[in-house]
Design goal:
Two copies of one chain form a homodimer. By secondary structure, chain A is of the alpha/beta class. The first copy, chain A, folds into two domains: 31-227, TIM Barrel (Alpha-Beta Barrel), CATH 3.20.20.10; 241-348, Beta Barrel (Lyase, Ornithine Decarboxylase, Chain A, domain 1), CATH 2.40.37. Chain A has twelve helices and 17 strands. Chain A has helices at 9-25, 40-48, 59-67, 84-93, 103-108, 136-148, 170-195, 206-211, 231-236, 268-271, 316-321, 335-341; strands at 4-7, 29-30, 54-56, 72-78, 95-100, 116-123, 131-132, 152-159, 201-204, 220-222, 246-256, 261-265, 285-289, 296-305, 309-313, 327-332, 346-348. In chain A, the strands form two sheets. In chain A, strands 2, 3, 4, 5, 6, 7, 8, 9 and 10 form a nine-stranded parallel beta sheet that branches. In chain A, strands 11-12-15-14-13-16 form a six-stranded antiparallel beta barrel. In chain A, helix 5 links the parallel strand 5 (95-100) and strand 6 (116-123). The interface between A and B is large, with 51 and 50 residues.
Chain lengths: 349, 349
């Protein structure tokens, strides 16, 4: 193994504990998104904190974790009607919740033989998927139809505040949270009037759940990225350097003195090509010194990635410090995509 | 399996045949880069054309293909000195060529017990890795040192004309080829004078090897991407639509009439986040109709990707045409990265 995705267990455990405690203090169901790590060992760190309900983003991921004993899973991705038979099979084995966003989904669910929980996705401002929070009648009609189908169990409304990724700093993140939650609760109230029942509300995203401390009116949180955090979360302001729990550790294979660059074995097939403009322009990752308890973030950054090559644009100090054959630690831009690519090269220390 | 990487075998076979014939006509060793497909079945299509020498970009990939019988492999990536023991093991089993770019590499090779072929990487203008073509003395000194080590066998100079990816159209691509080849041959001539022997020249990259027809002075080509081509190659002008041999086939999970968007199950973990600006701004892939012999490229394109979601910005016609539950075919921007992510979801038809 030449390069690896190194997870710092104590830091990850602390991140999990912090979020679990916060959920507990707010009487929230904590249903972490396992798409970030997709890793059984990391899953066990959640079990240690008493967290056994999980979220995933695909049927395949649900099957994977169910094979290892997780038996209450929400697939927080709009239903693929081509997968209904497989969903039916899985629902025989575990408590399965799926997500719908339109009437077509519901029509196809009538063939289910096993009991499946259904959530409706609500768009509270991210505008990726889900029914607009203003369209109460549409949501009500879906809920009524779910009630009418004996094998479906209505589980509530689900929203992903993904626009929090455009926020910068605590105040903006809280603003996104407040605006989105206000919209979700407004819809909930209107539905309560019509249907005579209070509907369960589930929200996701790492930035808001990391920063917000009071979750009035919310019933469940589904953050995922917080287990490792990454450069993007650092830029957004949802974590600080002490909470980063994973790096990509790459061998230096060459040095270019003219350009003050290190060439590393770490490319797009290891980092992914997610990009941000944190301080330096166009960065695919940032060099960090993890050899001390308090990590030291360097100004050296990954300026370019091809399939297997990475180019690190160095400070003078780092260019001197790292030799050919050394391993260099880099905080990835988006730990979810990196962890997915490095599934087979993950080392937990 | 909800989405898949669909390879059209006849098209891939034709691409391989075309390149193999071109190599034959020019008396070139054809050593295709297998990092693009990393697939044993596609490897067999090469064997059908009598092509058994291969290039890979990592030691792990070399091990993978050697396990399936490939026994003459070049690792076209600067040596990671931390992997020398494993290289030694592999060299016991197969004809292995490695790539060096500096003196440090060579010093560490003295511990090898098995015979290993060594190539020196030359930078002819791409400026990623390799020794500048002007630095004849440096190259000569490395060659002399290789000669002096009994277990090392000097295999020649290797260059990747990666700057061809900045070219647009046949003329510019040929310009990049001519400029780079001129530099490589100039170095070769100077070395011949000094060392009294003609040195083997190996070049890579799909754009130039696709467009150029005469390879005077070159001994080996190592293209990889040409087996599938992709949207980037189409933009560069190294292929036409009839040569594209792979698409990502994704289920439509929702439709957004207001924005004329399809939501598909196909995200950054399937496509990668490689991006280009072909006609429309910021595209991660382009919709294509593969149901007829001559594929029809649509103006609909993937405008946004998150981990599992893709958003297709549609023409009016496509928005009507595709229904929830349908499968939609998309040409990825960079087939190498996509094929790597979809290794387990590849279907050859």
């Amino acid at each position: 193994m030449s390069n690896s995705f190194v997870v710092f267990k104590k830091r990850a455990q602390k991140n999990i504990n912090t979020m679990a405690q916060k959920a507990k203090a707010n009487n929230l169901v904590f249903r972490p998104h396992f798409k970030t790590h997709q890793n059984i060992e990391i899953g066990k760190l959640f079990l240690k904190e008493g967290v056994s309900f999980i979220t995933v983003s695909s049927l395949n991921m649900a099957k994977f974790f169910s094979d290892y004993g997780w038996d209450d899973i929400t697939i927080a991705f709009p239903l693929d009607i081509g997968e209904i038979n497989e969903i039916d099979q899985l629902a025989k084995k575990i408590n399965l919740q799926i997500l719908i966003t339109n009437k077509t989904h519901l029509e196809h669910l009538s063939s289910l033989k096993n009991r499946v929980g259904v959530m409706i996705e609500i768009d509270t401002g991210y505008h990726r998927t889900g029914i607009d929070f203003k369209k109460m009648e549409e949501v009500k009609s879906l809920i009524t139809d779910i009630y009418a189908q004996p094998n479906l169990f209505f589980m509530g409304l689900l929203s992903h505040y993904g626009n929090s990724y455009q926020s910068r700093g605590k105040e903006q993140i809280e603003g996104t949270y407040n605006r989105s939650t206000h919209r979700l609760i407004e819809l909930q109230k209107r539905l309560a009037k019509e249907l005579g029942s209070v509907i369960f509300l589930s929200i996701g995203d790492t930035p808001t759940t990391s920063v917000v401390t009071k979750f009035d009116g919310i019933d469940e949180i589904r953050p995922g990225n917080f287990v490792y955090y990454d450069l993007m979360q650092l830029q957004i302001g949802s974590c600080d350097i002490s909470q980063i729990a994973a790096v990509v550790r790459c061998p230096v294979v060459d040095k270019n003195p003219k350009e003050k660059q290190l060439i590393i074995h770490g490319g797009a097939v290891h980092f992914s090509k997610e990009i941000i403009d944190i301080e330096s322009p166009k960065s695919y990752g940032r060099v960090v010194d993890t050899s001390t308890k308090n990590w030291i973030l360097s100004d050296s950054f990954v300026s370019s990635l091809s399939q297997e090559h990475g180019i690190v644009q160095c400070t003078d100090i780092d260019f001197e410090k790292y030799k050919i054959g050394d391993l260099i630690d880099i905080i990835p831009v988006h730990s979810c995509l990196t962890a997915n690519l490095m599934k087979e090269n993950t080392v937990i220390i």
